[in-house]
Amino acid sequence: MLLLARTTLREEVEKRTEGLSTFLVDMRAAVADGTMTIRPIRTLMNHATTEIFLDGVFVAEDDLVGEEGRGFRHILDGMNAERVLIAAECIGDGRWFVEKASAYASERVVFGRPIGQNQGVQFPIAQAHAQIEAADLMRYKAAWLYEQGLPCGPAANMAKLLASEASWAAANACLDTHGGFGFAEEYDIERKFRETRLYKVAPISNNLVLAYVGQHVLGMPRSY
Ligand SMILES: Cc1cc2nc3c(=O)[nH]c(=O)nc-3n(C[C@H](O)[C@H](O)[C@H](O)COP(=O)(O)OP(=O)(O)OC[C@H]3O[C@@H](n4cnc5c(N)ncnc54)[C@H](O)[C@@H]3O)c2cc1C
User: Fold this and answer.
1) Tell me: the pLDDT tens digits for 200-222?
2) For a disulfide at 159, which of 20, 27, 138, 147, Cβ 3.0-4.6 Å?
């Protein structure tokens, strides 16, 4: 694991993001010698996350990754790439929901006509599609900036925000379109519905993305 740990006391640095360093930790060895405990957390979806407890894990000087004291900066760099990755995942999810919903809306007949002929069914699917396409543009903008080595924080954060909201809109439209069948395991919709919900919260909650945009992009006062 890549571990971020404080290597200079908080009192000795100006900002709390300083004095942290990143280390490569051999998890198998740490678990074997009892200094690391890993406990899976049962969650809304499978294979989601674990709690990790560290108690005296040994790291050697050689295990340092990057520059000592600049660990938070190193982690931040990876976080922007992760935001782009998560945005891409949401866009994939969103497209899956939209395709499933449009196909079902065209074939399911209620009161003598396909349900997709009703605007109440059709419009939420179309709306989600438009949201997904817009998020996709922001995702590619962020990926391009990242690849050029240019500042990409605003685009990466906004891509994650827009894509997670778009996939959630698509998930809801898809579930509604399928009526009761949307809840049946065999359609896979309920599973993906649960999975895509995560991205409004992790790896950073959308509120915190908005706080970032408000402060760092729009220059408003820090809200937290
Ligand atoms: C399945 C899963 C996998 C995860 N995997 C990882 C992982 O691999 N690595 C990792 O580091 N973390 C991981 N996380 C943790 C995840 O990044 C956090 O849960 C997420 O960032 C939200 O932080 P929190 O849980 O501390 O919520 P909190 O910070 O406690 O926030 C709770 C709620 O309050 C809101 N809130 C908090 N502060 C403010 C504010 N100032 N203004 C407005 N709203 C606010 C938030 O938006 C949220 O709705 C995972 C979480 C889950 C559920």
Assistant:
1) 999 999 999 999 999 999 999 99
2) 138
Phi, psi (degrees; rounded to nearest 5) at 118 = -90, 130
pTM of the model: 0.92
∠ at Cα 43 (40, 46), nearest 5°?
A: 80
How far, in Å, is the centroid of ligand 1 from the Cα of 133? 26
Kindly state the DSSP code that residue 70 receives in the 8-state scheme.
B
Q: Which residue type occupies 223?
A: S
Do 21 and 40 form a contact (C-beta atoms < 8 A)?
no
Counting ligand 1 atoms within 8 A of each CB, the residue from 44, 197, 208 with the most, and so the one to mutate, is 208
Gap from CA of 207 to ligand 1 centroid (Å): 10
CB of 224 closer than 6 A to ligand 1?
A: yes
Strand order of the sheet with strand 20-24? 2-6, 20-24, 64-65
Question: Are residues 3 and 60 in contact, defined by beta-carbon separation less than 8 angstroms?
Answer: no
The finding on whether 128 has its CB within 6 A of some atom of ligand 1 is no
**Residue 60 has what pLDDT?**
92
CB 125 within 8 A of CB 98: yes
Q: Which residues contact 91 (CB under 8 A, 6 or more apart)?
A: 132, 135, 136, 139, 163, 166, 167
What number of CA atoms fall less than 13 Å from residue 1's CA on the CB side? 16
Q: How confident is the model at residue 12 (pLDDT cuts 50, 70, 90)?
A: very high
Atom of ligand 1 nearest to the CA of 206: 47
